[in-house]
Structures are given as C-alpha cells and as structure tokens.
Amino acid sequence: MTTVLVVDDEPQLLRALRINLRARGYEVHAAADGAEALRLAAAHPPDLVILDLGLPDMDGTEVVAGLRGWTEVPILVLSGRSDSTDKVEALDAGADDYVTKPFGMDELLARLRAMLRRRGGKDEQPVVEFGSNTVDLAARKVTHDGEEVRLTPTEWHLLEVLLRNPGRLLSQKQLLLEVWGPGYETARGNLRLYMAQLRKKLEVDPARPVHLLNEPGMGYRFEP
Questions:
Q1: Domain total of the chain
Q2: Alpha carbons 24 and 33: distance in angstroms, whole number
Q3: Taking residues 6-11, what's their average pLDDT?
Q4: Beta strands 219-222 and 212-215, pairing class
Q5: For residue 135, what are the domain limits?
Q6: Which residue has the higher pLDDT, 125 or 60?
Q7: The pTM of the whole model exceeds 0.70
C-alpha cells in the first residue's frame, strides 16, 4: 500500500484529503505542523508527501529542506500564495511539483499518480520518445522525424535534465545551477536562448510548444 504524508494546518482540507486518499487505497498519515510532519516522516517513511507552505510553526520550505536531508521522496507542495517567489523557493529547496489553492481533487490525484509513476520508472531504458523525436540518453543521440539532430553540449545538457524529470516543474535557478553551474543563477537570458534553440529543433511549432513548456516566472517543464 502506498503511504502518503499530508501536511496542512487547515482541519477541513486535511480531513478531505485523508478521506479522498483512503478511498483510493492510500495509507495516510496527517500532520498539522512542520515539526509533526518531520517526526512522522522519520517514524513512518512515506512514498509521497503533500505539503502546505503556510504552516504555523515553520515555513513549508524548511520542511522540504529537512526531508531532503535524508530522503528523495516525491514532494507535492500546496500553496495558497499568489506570489510565485514562494513556489520557486520550494522547488529550489527540493519540492517536485506544486498545486495552487483552491484546487480540484481530480487534478491533485492526477499529479500524485504522475509523481509515483516517475519514481517507479527510474530503472527503465534511457530512451525517451515525444512527438516526432527519439532521444537516446545513453548514446546521447537525438532524432527528429528519423533524421539525426545535432545539439550543442549545452543544449544536450539542458534537454537531458528536462527529460530525466518528466512532468516536473524545474525552476530557473535549478536549471541554471545544473546546466551552467554556480555563479549563473541569475543568467536567465542564457536559459531563454537555449530553450528557444531546443524548441526550434524539436517542436513542430516552436512558437506553440507542447513538450518543452514554460511557466512564466517559475521555470520549465517537459511533458512527454
């Protein structure tokens, strides 16, 4: 049975999540603050965490950082905040995805299923297909409509990071640190330029991408 740790200080939402998750066969542990969440996670290691950013004793990003000190469990952040900065900070701290309050239960459950599928698929063969593209991550080879596509080392690195995290929103800071390294955290122009080049080579309509997506002010996401 898949175990989910739900962390939220709103009793009604906590109850609704517990009921809906249990009805779908999940084992649920619930916490109303960050300290209890970290204690429960250590005592009963979850397969997935649903975490509200606004907790009474500490910020949700502190809980994310605390969990990331010892586990790679998928973390879905719930946020009622309109400022994207908070969500970016949570992603940079190690969260995998976010849902903005208010949200539909169907959307939330779909996000959970996608995160669990990604976690279970780490040992699959490193070949990714999307649209008219085939990417062999092991051979470092890309084809589009059967023709080999030449990528620069930076384009390849950026594409590889995105493809290894399907469906996951990666913040601009995460991508810049991963691809360009320390000192480039604010070089957003670099990121826009190389994403535009990848779209030109791999999207049918680069102006209307369906696989290499941007969430303004947040980051980028690869959708198969």
A1: 2
A2: 25
A3: 95
A4: antiparallel
A5: 127-222
A6: 60
A7: no
